[in-house]
Amino acid sequence: MSYSKVPMSTVICHTLFVFTNLFFFSWLFKLSILLTTFLCYFIDFLLTLSLRQHCGSGTRRKVKRLLSFQRYCHASRLLRGLVPHTPGSLHLLDDDYLGQAAHMLSKVGTWNFDIFLFDRLTNGNSLVTLMCHLFNVYGLIHHFQLDMVKLHRFLGMVQEDYHSQNPYHNAVHAADVTQAMYCYLKEPKLAEQLSPLDVFLGLMAAAAHDVDHPGVNQPFLIKTRHHLASLYQNTSVLESHHWRSTVGMLRESGLLSHLPANMSHDMEQQLGSLILATDISRQNEFMSTFREHLDNQDLDLQHAPHRHFILQISLKCADVCNPCRVWELSRQWSERVCEEFYRQGDLERKFDLEISPLCNQQADSVPAIQIGDSNFCYFQNELQMKN
C-alpha cells in the first residue's frame, strides 16, 4: 500500500497515539521519581525517630550525613533536571556556580573577598563550594585521581563538624582561612615552586585547621579537666584534636584509600604538621626560625622541607589575617571573636573560675581586646628575640 493512499485521518490518529504514549510515559517517569523521593524522605524520617531512641549523637550525625548526601545525589538533581554542563565535568556543586556566586569565585584570589556574602549566596556551603572550586583550579582531582563522591563526602563531613553556634570558630572562618591561604599560594615566587602535593596539603590544612572547635581555648579545657586536655597531655590540645579529627574523616570517607599506604600516611603526617603549627603558643618558635632563615638568606623553595615550612607560616598568617582585610570585613571578625571570648568568660564566671584574659565582657572592650591580642603576640616575639 502506498503512503499516498493512507487517509489523512489515519495519519493524524497514529501521530496522536505516539505523542500520547510519549507524554504518558514521560509523566510516568517523573511520577516514579517523585514517589521514590517521597519514599526516601519517609524512610529517613523513620530512621531518625529510631536513632533518637537508640543511638548516640555521633551515630545520629553520621547517619544523617549519609542520608542527606544520598538524597542529594539520587533525587534532587534528577527532579530539577540538572546535568553537568560538559561531559566529564568535575564541578560538584554546579548550582552554586551560577549568578553572583560564580562572579565572586572569579575574584577569589583578592584580599577584599567577602566570605560572609559568599556564604549566604551558597546557602551556608561556602567551605565545600570554595574547596571544590580551588581543587578544580589546580587540577588536584585529576592529579591525585580522587573519587568525586568521596571528595564531596569528606568536605561535607568537615564543614558539618564545625560548630555553627560558635560566633568565630565555625565553617565560615575555615572558608575565610582557605581563601586567604589561596592568596598566599598564588604569590608568584611561591606558586612557581609549589608541587601539587604542597597545594593539596595547604588547602586541606586550611579547610580543616579548626574542625570541631568547642568555642573555648586551651587554658579553659585544662582548668576544667576536659577529656581532650587529658588525652593530649595539655599540649597543643585543640590543634591535636583538629588534626586527629581530620585524619578520622579522611579514613571514614576513603578519600585517600586508593593511594599507597605509605603515601597516604605521609600526607596525614604533613597535614598534622601544618595544623599543629597554628598553635599560638608556638608562635615564638616559628618566628625565631623564620627570622633565622631571613637573616641567613638560606630559604630554598626547591627543598621540600623549606616549602613545608613556608606552608606552615602561610597557614599561620591566614589564620590571623582578619585585621588585614578591608575594614567592613575586619570589623565583623573582631566582633565575632570578641563575642566568643565573652561567652567563655561568662562560662568561667558561672562556674566560679578565674576569668581568662580578654574574656571579661565587663572590663574588656572590643578595641581593647584587639590591641591586647596584638600586643600579646608582639611582646612574646620580642621576649623570644631577647632570649
Automatic annotation (TrEMBL):
Active site per UniProt: 169 (proton donor)
Positions contributing to Zn(2+) 1 binding: 173, 209-210, 319
This enzyme's EC code(s): 3.1.4.53
Highest taxon listed in the record's lineage: Eukaryota
Any one Gene Ontology BP term: signal transduction
Catalyzed reactions: 3',5'-cyclic AMP + H2O = AMP + H(+)
UniProt binding sites for AMP: 169-173, 210, 319, 370
Pathway in which the depicted protein is active: Purine metabolism; 3',5'-cyclic AMP degradation; AMP from 3',5'-cyclic AMP: step 1/1
Record key words, sorted: cAMP, Hydrolase, Membrane, Metal-binding, Transmembrane, Transmembrane helix
Database matches in InterPro entries: HD/PDEase_dom, PDEase, PDEase_catalytic_dom, PDEase_catalytic_dom_sf, PDEase_CS
Enzymatic class: hydrolase
One Pfam family cited in the UniProt record for this chain: PDEase_I
Cofactor: a divalent metal cation
Transmembrane segments: 31-51
GO molecular function: 3',5'-cyclic-AMP phosphodiesterase activity; metal ion binding
The UniProt record lists the keyword Protein biosynthesis: no
Domain PDEase: 93-387
Gene3D superfamilies membership: 3'5'-cyclic nucleotide phosphodiesterase, catalytic domain
Binding site for Zn(2+) 2: 210
Family according to the record: Belongs to the cyclic nucleotide phosphodiesterase family. PDE7 subfamily.
Protein name: 3',5'-cyclic-AMP phosphodiesterase
Organism whose genome encodes this protein: Myripristis murdjan
Organism lineage: Eukaryota, Metazoa, Chordata, Craniata, Vertebrata
